[in-house]
Amino acid sequence: MLQGKCVDTGGSTNLTKGELYYLFPHGGHAYCASRFPRPGSHFGAYQKNHFELVDVAIDSPAQVLNKYLARVVNPPSHFYQIDEEYIITEARTDGYYSVFFKHRPDGPPIGAYKRTECFERIVSLEESAKDTATIFEVGDIVEIIDASIIKRKHYENGVQATVIENFYGCISIQRNEPVDKMVISSVLLVGEDLQAIKKVKLKTLLEAVMVNDKPKNVKKSIEMVHDVPEVVKASVRKQKYEQLSLF
Q1: Angle CA(191)–CA(82)–CA(168) in degrees, nearest 5?
Q2: Taking the model in full, what pTM does it have?
Q3: I need a labelling partner for 207 at 20 to 30 A (CA). Which of 30, 32, 75, 142 fits?
């Protein structure tokens, strides 16, 4: 794998003079430049004279970086919105940290930045993976039992909400009933925050029943009765008959 130091930006705003890049041959006179050791993550092709090749130790171990669930507080580009959540790594030796989609923490990065004020770390993936939030599934109905932990308006004790997201031990819930015809924004619960809720109903399932000898989906749900899942309003086999006339 080739690495090169930029010696001439050629007027490009993507290149920084003196910075190291991973280089991948592009034809006979150019390289595709990338901040990551993958051809698919390159950000453009540039003439070879923009770079000075450097020696790379073949047996040098890959740097393993810790990853964190983070919230956007100062968007680094128009692609991001405030309060959106992504996965970020700790900074590499060159000062850059990588950004990943929240639902694809092991996928290819979608960006790399040096500015540290763009994201606010919420929790490390290693810690959150051990969290008890894994018992919750998207679609579960929960009840607020300690509103003092959540400290959000319209999320009082006894209010029911739906789990709309579960990611590495962090869950988001949203109040089921609107207030003054307005949908209430969701709340993120992490770590000890989960003590504020209890599960009262599992996600709604679909059951196929036969109607006129044709399968038809009907809803049923599972409720928690004495902390044990119990099917409620379960459908039974139904058969409809049509009256036939001989005349």
Answers
A1: 30
A2: 0.38
A3: 142
